[in-house]
Task: structure prediction
Amino acid sequence: MTGIVILTGAGISRESGLSTFRDPDGIWAKVRLEDLATPEAFARDPARVHAFYNARRAQLAEVKPNAAHFALARLEREWTGPVLLVTQNVDDLHDRAGSRPLHMHGALRRARCMACAAAMAWTADLSTSTPCPACAAAALRPDIVWFGEMPMGMDRIATALDECGLFVSIGTSGTVYPAAGFVADAAHARTVELNLEPSAGSDLFDEAHHGPATQVVPVFVERLLHSI
Ligand code: BV8
Result:
């Protein structure tokens, strides 16, 4: 049965109430990514970076998965072939909808120790004095992939892209690499974009359905499952 690779971005969580990054009201419209989402920024002002991620981690308690997240969890359950859901998002809405996503840019509700490399689930605030539960060093950072850092799971993603028959990109502007290059890596497969509007890489897709994710994703999944 055909393997499916799905890539999601901030747009899939927009209707749950989480900001995107590059829309006019997005996160990078308010703060500079160079000041908050790079290792250099963390070395320069760790308290400011911790505050940025603490606020976003705390916000997760106020939002819920939407119909698009639930539609993808249904596809993972009902599709008879392999499905790999890769998300650029650091929120936990796919997880809470019942998916088991590969968080290629890490996760807000995880922390990592820079002294002993332990990584763990984390829901509270982090600070420069929070002790690591494993080694007690005050050396915890968000388990997030910042710009200039290697995304997670790249080998697993490359294999899945090679083997898939369908690649679906949902709610991403297609501006951040290497994720933005996945559609080219999957050129042998049928490639579909589901997004509010054409993304930077729209021309690279065989098919596109534009509109809010809570509308276009459930319709796409329903059609796909009825094509079996
Ligand atoms: C790396 C965590 C190398 C942080 C993020 C070429 C090749 C390789 C790298 C590069 C390259 N060129 C440049 C680079 C460097 C860089 C990069 O791509 N820069 C960009 C800005 C040009 N890439 C990196 O640094 C990556 N690392 O390459 O490492 C390496 C090699 C060897 C060894 C070591 C290192 C790491 C990138 C990861 C950075 N971390 N996230 C955090 O979240 O705080 S990325 C950041 O952008 C976001 O977090 C998000 O995950 C990601 C993508 O954004 P989108 O999800 O697409 O969101 P956006 O707002 O842009 O778009 C939203 C879309 O939704 C829009 O299209 C909108 O229309 C749509 N939408 C809105 N509402 C809805 C909707 N759609 C549907 N329904 C709606 N209702």
Summary: The chain has eight helices and nine strands. The mean pLDDT is 97. Residues 9-11, 14-15, 20-23, 26, 37, 88-90, 105, 144-151, 171-173, 175-178, 195-197, 199, 212-213 surround BV8 (CB under 6 Å). The two ends are 9 Å apart (CA to CA).
